[in-house]
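Customer escalation, tier 2.

The customer says the design service returned an amino acid string that "doesn't look like it belongs to this structure." They asked us to rerun it and document both sides in this ticket. The original structure tokens are below, unchanged.
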């Protein structure tokens, strides 16, 4: 088959429509289409190789969009790509590429998660470890990330933030509600 035209897609300028023998054949990422030229002959194997490369590029682009919103763990990226029916080999390739670029690092993610929680939503060490485990972070990385957390300080910060809202309540009800808030965030009774 002969490449007869290469046209930018109207809605997505980072993709190119490839026309073979005068008819639309498939879409391709710009960085893959740059290797093509009009008049070039393509075999079925070449076409399959281009489609596979495009699928890998699409998986990588989807992963980039996902981690652009906020840092993610490796498993979060993998699960998201799997939900979008990306082939396992393409998921692995995207994750490896993100790791090489330094954009996906579970240890850094765990540390950032803990720091964020300490500032914006004080939570106990046990609850932090559970959250990170649910996000697929390895136990060793969890332990090093939560090692510096101070449960007493975090509980105090949370209690100081919530107490003004409950100040009008009678003491037994105030105490019960404040203890409930602390318990739901994973703090021990003591």
């Amino acid at each position: 088959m002969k490449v007869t035209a290469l046209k930018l897609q109207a809605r997505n300028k980072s993709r190119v429509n490839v026309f073979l023998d005068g008819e639309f054949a498939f879409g391709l990422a710009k960085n893959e289409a740059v290797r093509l030229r009009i008049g070039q002959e393509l075999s079925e194997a070449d076409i399959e190789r281009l489609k596979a490369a495009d699928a890998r590029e699409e998986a990588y682009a989807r992963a980039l969009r996902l981690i652009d919103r906020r840092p993610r763990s490796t498993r979060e990226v993998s699960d998201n790509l799997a939900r979008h029916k990306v082939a396992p080999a393409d998921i692995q390739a995207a994750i490896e590429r993100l790791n090489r670029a330094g954009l996906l690092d579970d240890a850094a993610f765990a540390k950032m998660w803990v720091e964020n929680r300490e500032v914006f939503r004080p939570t106990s060490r046990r609850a932090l470890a559970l959250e990170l485990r649910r996000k697929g972070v390895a136990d060793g990385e969890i332990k090093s990330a939560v090692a510096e957390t101070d449960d007493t300080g975090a509980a105090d910060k949370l209690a100081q933030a919530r107490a003004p809202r409950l100040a009008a309540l009678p003491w037994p009800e105030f105490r019960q509600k404040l203890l409930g808030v602390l318990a739901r965030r994973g703090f021990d009774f003591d």
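Tier 2 assessment: The sequence is consistent with the input. The longest strand covers residues 23-29. The mean pLDDT is 92. Sent an explanation to the customer and offered a walkthrough call.
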